[in-house]
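Re: the multi-chain job from yesterday

Posting the exact lines I submitted so nobody has to dig through the queue logs.
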Amino acid sequence: MVENTTAQQIETYLGAADAAFAAWSATPAGVRADVLDVVADALDAASGELVPIAMAETNLPEARLTGELKRTTFQLRLFGQVLRDGTWYDARIDHADAEWPMGAPRPDLRRTHIPLGPILVFSASNFPFAFSVAGGDTASALAGGNPVIVKAHSGHLELSRATGEVVTRALAEAGAPEGLFHVVYGTEAGKTALLDPRVKGSGFTGSIPGGRALFNLATSREEPIPFYGELGSNNPVFVTRQAAALRGESIAAEFVASFTMGAGQFCTKPGTLFIPRGSGMREALASAALPNGAKLLNDRIQAGYLEVLQQLSGHAATEVLVQGSDPLADPPSPTLLVTGVEDLLADPSALQTECFGPTAMVVEYDDEAQLVQAAKTFEGQLTATLQAQDDDDVAELVRIAAGKAGRVLWNQWPTGVSVTYAQQHGGPYPATTAAGSTSVGTAAIARFIRPVSFQNFPQHLLPAELQDANPLSNPRLVDGKPVA
Amino acid sequence: MVENTTAQQIETYLGAADAAFAAWSATPAGVRADVLDVVADALDAASGELVPIAMAETNLPEARLTGELKRTTFQLRLFGQVLRDGTWYDARIDHADAEWPMGAPRPDLRRTHIPLGPILVFSASNFPFAFSVAGGDTASALAGGNPVIVKAHSGHLELSRATGEVVTRALAEAGAPEGLFHVVYGTEAGKTALLDPRVKGSGFTGSIPGGRALFNLATSREEPIPFYGELGSNNPVFVTRQAAALRGESIAAEFVASFTMGAGQFCTKPGTLFIPRGSGMREALASAALPNGAKLLNDRIQAGYLEVLQQLSGHAATEVLVQGSDPLADPPSPTLLVTGVEDLLADPSALQTECFGPTAMVVEYDDEAQLVQAAKTFEGQLTATLQAQDDDDVAELVRIAAGKAGRVLWNQWPTGVSVTYAQQHGGPYPATTAAGSTSVGTAAIARFIRPVSFQNFPQHLLPAELQDANPLSNPRLVDGKPVA
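And the result, C-alpha cells for all chains:
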C-alpha cells in the first residue's frame, strides 16, 4: 500500500529539487549523459524485480512489459547520446559585424539553451515504464539539466515506488545531486506541485478531461508554465480503392492486429478505418479472426471503455460488424463497429469519439473525394495513416492529414512509436496541448530548456558550447551557416 | 479617422485568411521569400509617405523612424534568406534500420515543420514599424506559411492603415493568395479574432496586464493556441567595483544615454543600475548631463509614466539622484532615482517596477555578493547586463543572470536589439509568456510552425526538404548526424 504524499513531504521535495537545480544544471552535459547511462543500467538490472510488479498492477503481459522496459532504458541512453553530440544546444554564433546591413553594427551574439528548473511529470496508465516514472518526460527533463518530480499514476503505485527507488539509488551511485528526483502519490500531491512557483514546467500523458484540467491550472498560475499534455487521439486510417483491391485482406488483418494490440490501450490505436464500399474489405473484416479479450489496465479503464463502447454502438448510425463472444465482459472481447461516411460527416464528433480499449470504427465510403471531406472533420490527431498505392492521387489527402496530425504514415500502422531522431509524437489539440513539441524521440529534449543569448562575452565566461575553441565539438550555426 | 473593424468585417477577413492558408502554406518557401522581398521593397519605397505619418502619431523623431523602417525591411528580407537556406525546416531523416537497438526495427521517419494557420499579431506602441503591422511577428508568420491578421495599435492607427495598404498592394503584386493579410482596428476586434477557432496562434508586445489578459483568453479557448506575449522587463545592470573604478565615468554616461534613448520607451531600457558605494559613480551620475525631455508616444503612456514615477519616487527608500527641470511636465525631463541594495532586497517588487519612460533606479551596494542576492530577487527579464572586468569573479552572477533573462550582456547596453541568427529577445515570465521563444532574430520563425513526421512515405509524396535527392539543398540531421 503506497500512501499519498503529504503536503509537508511535497514541500520538502520541492525545496530539495530547487536546491539541486543549481548543481545539476551546472553539471556538464557529458556527465549528465553518464548519469543517465547508470540509471538505464540499473533499470535493466532490476527488470526481474520490476516486470512482475508491473504485470500484477497493469494486467499487461510479460513480453510486452519486458520490451517496454528495454525501450525505456534505450530512451535514457539515447538522450545521453544527444547530450554528448551537442545537437541539443542549437548553438549559434554571430560574430560582431560592423557592416551588418540592418543599419547598425551587429554585436557578438551567441545563443544556446539552458534548463528551466524543477519539472513535474504526470505519468500515464498505459505505459507503466516508457511514459511513467523513468519515461520520456523524465529522461528529457533530466537530460536538459532539470530536477524531476514524478506524480505516480494511481494504476501502478507499487511499480512507481519500486522504479523510483531504483532511479534514486542509481542517481546517488552516479554522483547526481541529492534531491534531484522524487516520486509523489495522490491527486492532491500532483495539483499542489503543479501550482508551486518552484515548478517550472510539466509533462502529462492521459485523458482529455484530466489533461485539460491540469493545463488550465498550469496556465492560470501567477507565473504560467509550459504544460505538455498528450490527451487523446482517434488515429484515422484511410484505405484507397486500389489498395483495398490489391491488399484488402492483408490490410484488414493488419488493422485488426493494430487496433487490438495491447487490448487497444495505445494512444496511437487506429480508431477509425475508412474502406471503399463494395471492395470486399467489409466482408474481410466481418470474418476476421479477432483475438481473445484481454484484461484492461484497471477497473476504471474497464468501466470507461464499456461506457464509450455502448455510446458508440448505441448510435443510430452504427452497427456491429464483428465482435467476440463477450464484448461487455471483463475481460472484454474486441468489437468492430461500422458506419457510413455520410453518417460520419453528419455527426463527426460523436462518431470520432476515442474509445480506449479494443474497439474501432469502420467507415464505408464510395468516392475517394469523401476521404478528403472526412479527414477535414477530424480534430487534432497524433497520427493519420494512408493505406494506398504509389500511383494513387492522394496528395490532397496527405496535405489534410499532415495538417491534422503530428505523424502521417504510409502503408504502416501507427501503434509502436519508434524512439528516434525524426520521430514526432504530438499533434494539434486535443491530441496535445502543445503541437510544437514531441514527447517521443530526441527532439523531446527541447521541452524543458529555453534559449539564452550572450552578448559580447569574454571566452572564459561563455558556456563551452559557445566558445571559439569549440571544446565539445558540437555543431553550430556560425554567422548563419551550419558548421557540423 | 480610422474606424473600428466591425464583427462582420472580421468574419470576412477570417474566412479569407482561412481560405488563403491552403495556397500560402503550399507555396514553396523560396517563392514566399520572393514575396517577402517585394513587401520589403515596397515599404522602403513608401518611406517618404510612412515616416511622416509615424512622426505625427508617435512623437518619435525622423531619424529614429527611418532607421526603424530600415530594420523592419531588413528583417523581412532576412526571413526570406532563412526560407531559402532551409535551416528553418530542422529537417531530420531516419532511414529504416532493422537493427535499431530499441528492441524493434526503426521505420523510415522524416520530420519537418509546417505552418499553423491564420495568426493574429497584436502590434506594439513603441515600435510603430518593427513590432507593428509589418514587424517581426508578421514577418515570421508569413515566412512560415501562415496568413496574418494584425490588430493595429491604437497609438498609430493611420500609420497602421497606411502600412497595411502598402503590404496588401505588395502582396497582390507579388502574386500572394488573396486574403492573406488584413489589419483590424479596435480592442473588440482583437478579442473577437483571438477567440475565433480559425486563428491558430498569436503574438503580442505590450504591457503586463494587457498581455496577461490576452494570454488568458488564448489559453481558455476550446482549442488553446500558442500566445507569444512580450510583456515587461526591468533589465538590470550590474557594475562591479573594478569596472566602476576603471570606467565609472564612461559607464555612467553610457547608462544615461541608454536609459533615456527613445525617451526610455524601449522594452530593453536598463531600468536598474547597481553601483558600488564610495566608487564615485554616484557622484558621476548625479552630475550627469541629462538630455532634454522628449514627448512620449501618447497621452496614455504619459499618464502611466507619471503614475509609476510618482509611485517610485514616493517610496520611502528612494530619493532623486538627478532630474531635469520638468520631471512631471509634458514632455517630462528624465529622472534618476537612487536607493540602497538593502532596501531593494527588503521590497524588491515595488522597487523593481518597470517605469516605461525616461526614469531609472540606481542601487548602491557594498559587496559584490549582494549583486548575486539582488539578481535572485528579479522576476523574468528580457535582458541582464554586467559591466565588469575580465578578471572579476562573476561566474555566479552570470549564472544567475542567465537564469533570469533571455539575453545577458557584457560591457554593452541592452537597448538596440540586433536582428541576427543568434539573437534571443524573450525571457521567463513576466518578460514573456513563452520563454522558449524569441520575437527577434531568425529563430523567431519557429513561433508559428510545428513539427510533423512522415513515416515510410514514397519520395514523390514527401515535402522537397525531406526527399533523398535534397532538391532544396537544405541542411538535415540524417540518422542523427548533421549534414550541412
